[in-house]
Design goal:
Blueprint (H helix, E strand, L loop, with lengths): L1 H16 L1 H42 L4 H55 L16 H20 L1 E2 L18 H40 L4 H55 L13 H20 L1 E2 L5
Parallel strand pairs: 1-2
Helix pairs in contact: 2-3, 2-5, 2-6, 2-7, 3-5, 3-6, 3-7, 4-6, 5-6
Length: 316
């Protein structure tokens, strides 16, 4: 057992040593935390409804309220513990979905880094782009850029080249509508799954709570009418859960996109500058440690091109 624990500690240290691995892990934690936070908020609202019910029963003068209260809370806790295993495994699954989301976000940068590492040893290496995970500005221009460098290496000289006009007027990060659509669609699936799971779990607890109250208090028209009219409060909890989940995942989506959109523009700007004749241009990103490993390989490739090939005069 001790050896297993030591092995897990060593492996966790190795994982956290890589900055992009940390990004994946923290993305998974963020996505999981939103679901857990929403669940506990909904559960807290349900407990407030439970307390409100006791105020009603006390006002009606029901006897043995302490016995009912103890039984009721025991039932709620018992039902919650029964669902605990499902809550745990659902959020473990959600954590790995979050890691996959982080992987999608970093995949274009990893593709650039992997290609630059490979092309240094194999000039005929092909730069491949995954359309699902592409940032249109970065990946389309990087295809053009790497093909330009490939042709330059074939001819033994850094070719003078003109920048396509659609890339000249870009001076800040742009929103990639296609990528955002794919990204938001994936987060929407995560949000819907989380919401359905939370609502079903809360509904199970709420149903047990009502069932116990009706059994304990026997038949009383006023109690039945009270619980019937109380349903609108439960509906409000459901609506709040849905709204909170959508809002938080939307904020998270914007946060995750903004965490890499600036880096995508920075790499694009460096490539464009290099093609314009500024052969000392390199990628220097501040605050993007999870991408730095890939940009270092790109810079190394640019160093190789600059130091080993003559230059033609730039066309502009």
């Amino acid at each position: 057992m001790k050896k297993l624990i030591n092995f897990l500690i060593v492996q966790s240290r190795l994982v956290f040593r890589s900055e992009d691995s940390k990004f994946l892990l923290f993305t998974g934690i963020k996505i999981t935390t939103i679901s857990l936070f929403t669940f506990f908020c909904s559960f807290y609202f349900l407990l407030q409804v439970l307390r409100l019910n006791f105020v009603f029963f006390e006002a009606k003068g029901y006897p043995k309220l302490e016995v009912l209260e103890q039984a009721w809370f025991d039932s709620v806790i018992g039902e919650s513990l029964e669902n605990l295993i499902y809550i745990f495994f659902f959020h473990v699954f959600l954590f790995f979905i979050g890691i996959y989301v982080g992987h999608i976000i970093l995949r274009p940068f990893r593709a650039i880094g992997d290609y630059c590492k490979e092309v240094l040893e194999n000039p005929n290496a092909v730069y491949k782009v995954d359309d699902f995970s592409t940032y249109k500005l970065l990946t389309h221009f990087s295809e053009f850029f790497f093909e330009y460098l490939r042709e330059s290496r074939k001819r033994g000289v850094i070719l003078a080249n003109s920048i396509p006009p659609q890339y000249n007027g870009i001076h800040k990060p742009v929103y990639d509508k296609v990528f955002i659509f794919h990204f938001v669609f994936l987060l929407l699936i995560v949000g819907i799954s989380s919401t359905v799971f939370i609502i079903e779990t809360i509904n199970s607890i709420y149903g047990s709570m009502i069932e116990l109250a009706l059994k304990t208090l026997k038949y009383d028209p006023s109690v039945s009418d009270f619980f019937l009219k109380q349903n609108f409060i439960y509906d409000q909890i459901v609506f709040i859960t849905i709204g909170m989940t959508i809002f938080l995942y939307l904020v998270l989506g914007l946060h995750l996109y903004s965490s890499v959109s600036g880096a995508a523009f920075g790499i694009f700007a460096t490539m464009r500058s290099f093609m314009k004749g500024n052969y000392f241009s390199r990628v220097h990103l501040i605050g993007y440690s999870y991408i730095r490993e890939h940009t270092r390989v790109l810079n190394k490739y640019l160093d190789y091109i600059q130091n080993n090939y003559d230059k033609e005069s730039p066309k502009g």
